[in-house]
């Protein structure tokens, strides 16, 4: 039934034409930019609120990666040759299919923002529509089945509950953040070991070629696990050594902070990751990239712009 639904959407997509397909693909791939936006809002608008958002996202992508490498569900076009995904979306359709990484990311960030701005009804409506739109686009483009996106949205909700419990625990007693820090390190280490050591299905096509290379399927998990680890490290260190604030900051500070974040992002993506993937195993390169993204966004960049602001007496 799920494949019949995708075939129905595929027929609509092909009749709609390239322009519609491209527009839907562009909307579908906004989730990475959503995470970047959350990092910027964390340092430019409201540190506490968007710390919760980034926590929720980190928990959700960790859960999503674990489910993906445990279930090992192939993409729709691997399971059914009649499914023809749009070419423009294939670059982002990495890893296993179940659950959808795009839909889980959109759900985690959006749900947490709705909670943090619970009195803003218009924002809530827009974000709910955004979750629905991302879920639909992943199916419309042939990248995911209905169950992929439904479970992904459920993951976002579970991450929302987990974040609330975690933050309540941290705020309950001084020193509880150390427990969270230690537990997160142990958990991510265990998950990385699980991802690398567990058995994966190796199915062959009629010509004897591997349908899905397990090593390629581990790449996304390495990125997601390391992003969560990097954020936990950044959160823990920032609380102790940086302690930046978003209260009462002006336009100059916001521009500076955005610029510092952008510089770190470009260096990581264009220099460090480019070198890492040329010299290391792709899984290690992805781990380095994921870790540095969140660690730089939540700790290194605040460390730098705080020193600049203090030097300039802003």
Helix/strand layout:
Blueprint: H1 2-16, H2 18-28, H3 31-44, H4 47-71, H5 76-79, H6 87-90, H7 101-116, H8 121-140, H9 146-172, H10 176-197, H11 214-241, H12 251-279, H13 282-312
Q: What is the count of DSSP helices, taking H or I runs of 4+ residues?
A: 13
Instruction: Give the CA-CA distance, first to last residue.
Output: 60 Å
Q: Report the C-alpha radius of gyration, rounded.
A: 20 Å
Helix content: over 70%
Descriptive keywords:
mainly alpha
Would you kindly provide a written description of the structure presented here, covering whatever features stand out?
39% of the residues are buried. The mean pLDDT is 94. With 314 residues, the protein is mainly α. Helix 4 runs antiparallel to helix 11 and helix 10 (176-197) packs antiparallel against helix 11 (214-241). It is built from 13 helices and no strands. It is 78% helix and 0% strand. The chain is globular and about 65 Å long.
Would you summarize the structure shown here?
This protein is 78% helix and 0% strand.
């Amino acid at each position: 039934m799920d494949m019949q639904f995708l075939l129905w959407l595929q027929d609509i997509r092909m009749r709609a034409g390239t322009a519609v397909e491209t527009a839907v693909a562009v909307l579908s791939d906004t989730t990475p930019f959503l995470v970047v936006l959350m990092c910027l809002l964390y340092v430019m608008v409201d540190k506490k609120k968007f710390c919760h958002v980034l926590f929720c996202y980190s928990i959700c992508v960790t859960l999503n990666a674990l489910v993906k490498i445990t279930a090992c569900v192939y993409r729709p076009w691997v399971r059914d040759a009649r499914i023809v995904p749009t070419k423009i979306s294939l670059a982002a359709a990495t890893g296993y299919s179940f659950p959808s990484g795009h839909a889980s990311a959109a759900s985690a960030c959006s749900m947490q923002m709705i909670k943090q701005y619970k009195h803003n009804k218009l924002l809530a409506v827009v974000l709910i529509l955004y979750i629905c739109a991302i879920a639909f686009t992943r199916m419309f483009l042939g990248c995911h089945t209905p169950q992929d996106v439904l479970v992904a949205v459920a993951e976002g909700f579970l991450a929302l509950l987990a974040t609330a419990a975690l933050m309540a625990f941290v705020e309950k007693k001084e020193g509880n953040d150390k427990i969270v820090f230690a537990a997160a390190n142990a958990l991510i280490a265990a998950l990385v070991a699980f991802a690398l050591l567990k058995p994966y299905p190796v199915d062959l096509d009629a010509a004897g070629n591997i349908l899905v290379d397990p090593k390629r399927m581990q790449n996304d998990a390495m990125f997601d696990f390391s992003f969560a680890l990097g954020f936990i490290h950044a959160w823990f260190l920032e609380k102790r050594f940086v302690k930046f604030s978003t209260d009462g900051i002006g336009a100059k500070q916001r521009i500076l902070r955005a610029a510092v974040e952008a510089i770190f992002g470009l260096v990581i993506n264009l220099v460090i990751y480019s070198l890492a993937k040329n010299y290391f195993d792709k899984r290690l390169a992805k781990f380095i990239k994921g870790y540095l993204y969140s660690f730089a966004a939540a700790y290194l960049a605040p460390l730098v712009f705080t020193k600049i602001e203090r030097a300039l007496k802003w």
